[in-house]
Amino acid sequence: MRFDAIVIGGGQAGCEATARLLDASLKVCLISAGLTMEDENTDPWRENRAMAQRGATVLRGDRAVSAVLEAGKVLSVRTVNLDDEPLEAALFILATGKYFSRGLLSDMEHIYEPVFGADVDYIPGRSHWYDQDFSAPQPFLSFGVKTDERGRVLIGGKSIGNLYATGDILARDAAEADWAQIMNDYAGK
To answer: 3-class DSSP state for residue 3?
Structure first.
């Protein structure tokens, strides 16, 4: 399936990104993991439905699991439910959130972004990821993907030309996606 833009993450940041892209008359796919019919009364569910009513293809209850990159650009992503069908686009927006929405994952030694393998800003050493005082500011809340000055995601220290990040997935000091720049980049695809 081919779209102008694919937004990965159906929470507030993903829905805001989808709305902006729809406002620019783009054909948009919103991949929204974890929402089921039981969630009908939650804000993200209503927002996902609103994006579908505006013309977005919403893959509710699906999750992006891998991506194909070539020459510094994302070509496609695959999802759990559409494993055989690559989703292609000229523009990709990563808005998956952090830990609680599984936008970031960890093993015993590392914190990582699971779809693209994006660079993640975090403190090495698991014991530094949290404060034992539950009410204290938790260091892991500042961890997130790294971006360049235009909000493009970094992988291996290099900017990915058509992959932007927005919302909670960002590291504390990462640049937020610049929507005017995104539209300019899309126009020059």
So the answer is: strand
CA dihedral (2, 43, 167, 119) in degrees, to 10, reads -60
Contact call for residues 14 and 37 (beta carbons, < 8 A): no
Burial of 36 (0-12, 13-18, 19+ CB in 10 A): exposed
Work out the mean pLDDT of the chain and round it to a whole number: 85
Residue ranges making up the domain that contains 20: 2-187
153: tokens are: 């995601």
Tokens of 23: 């406002």
64 vs 66: CA distance, rounded Å: 6
pLDDT per position as a tens digit, 53-87: 888 899 988 999 999 999 999 999 999 999 889 99
Residue 100: give its domain's CATH number: 3.50.50.60
Going by their DSSP bridges, the two strands 120-121 and 144-145 should be labelled as antiparallel
Angle between helices 43-53 and 12-23 (to 10 degrees): 20
Domain tally, the chain: 1
Q: What's the pTM?
A: 0.87
Q: How far apart are CA 53 and CA 66, in angstroms?
A: 27
* 100's tokens: 């609680």
